[in-house]
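A.,

Following up on our hallway conversation. Structure tokens first:
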């Protein structure tokens, strides 16, 4: 089997943990990075291709494997659906999940569109700005002024800030199994006691959110970022193949899922 990995993820918990667990079970695993051209034989001469990453090379390789009839986890089309945060948010709305008010466009255009709302909208607590095609919290920040927004000329997603505890509720999904954990937010100070962070019991509403997201995007290995605002839960975004932080058995569960996909 072949595991494709963006080079920036080589030293992270995943896919290193998955690869180790597969090899411990006797699987012949070829780990292929995306720094150079991805060899065709590792895509067609294998029983499954697993990808950790969303670079153009990784997505092209996934699509090539699919065209050759090789099973993939997850498929290129599914990963592309969450790569674009604008389309992702629109899809979450379509399936009835609660999301923040969201605007998509270039910084200068967004500063003009948001100007009437900046100080006047009741209940508005500010805005979160993120690159439309970003990940791993890169470029995510609170917008402190319209001027700071106007200076960002790339494609952006601007979302209304949802007040909470300063912790994100993360859902981690491996096939039909769902796990949850609270982690400090990358954009606002966390007010929770450290004892309140870490693994969380998966309730029926959390299970339903995970299942809806899986169906909406066609993903099997993914994470969902949520914010708890009082009694309400708001979905911020969905990410393909996360690190599964706070899931202590993730390596083993991932290996079982991958091996099960080719039997």
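Then the amino acids I'd put at each of the 263 positions:
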């Amino acid at each position: 089997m072949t595991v494709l990995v963006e080079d920036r993820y080589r030293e992270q918990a995943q896919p290193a943990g998955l690869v180790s667990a597969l090899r411990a079970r006797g699987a012949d695993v070829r780990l292929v990075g995306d720094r150079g051209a991805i060899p065709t034989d590792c895509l067609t001469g294998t029983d499954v291709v697993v990808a950790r990453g969303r670079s153009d090379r990784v997505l092209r390789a996934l699509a090539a494997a699919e065209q050759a009839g090789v099973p993939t986890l997850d498929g290129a089309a599914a990963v592309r659906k969450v790569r674009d945060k604008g389309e992702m948010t629109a899809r979450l709305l379509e399936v009835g999940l609660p999301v923040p008010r969201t605007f998509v466009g270039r910084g200068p255009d967004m500063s003009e569109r948001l100007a009437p709302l900046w100080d006047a909208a009741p209940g508005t607590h500010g805005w979160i700005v993120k690159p439309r095609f970003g990940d791993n919290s890169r470029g995510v920040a609170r917008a402190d002024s319209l001027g700071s927004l106007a200076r960002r000329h790339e494609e952006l997603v601007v979302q209304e800030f949802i007040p909470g505890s300063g912790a994100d509720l993360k859902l981690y999904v491996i096939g039909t199994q769902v796990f949850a954990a609270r982690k400090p937010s990358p954009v606002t100070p966390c007010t929770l006691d450290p004892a309140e962070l870490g693994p969380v019991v998966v309730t029926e509403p959390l299970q339903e959110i995970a299942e809806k997201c899986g169906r909406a995007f066609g993903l099997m290995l993914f994470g969902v970022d949520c914010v708890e605002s009082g009694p309400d839960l708001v979905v911020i975004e969905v990410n393909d193949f996360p690190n599964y932080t706070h899931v202590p058995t993730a390596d083993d569960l991932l290996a079982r899922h991958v091996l099960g996909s080719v039997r």
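The mean pLDDT is 92. Curious whether your intuition agrees with the design.

B.
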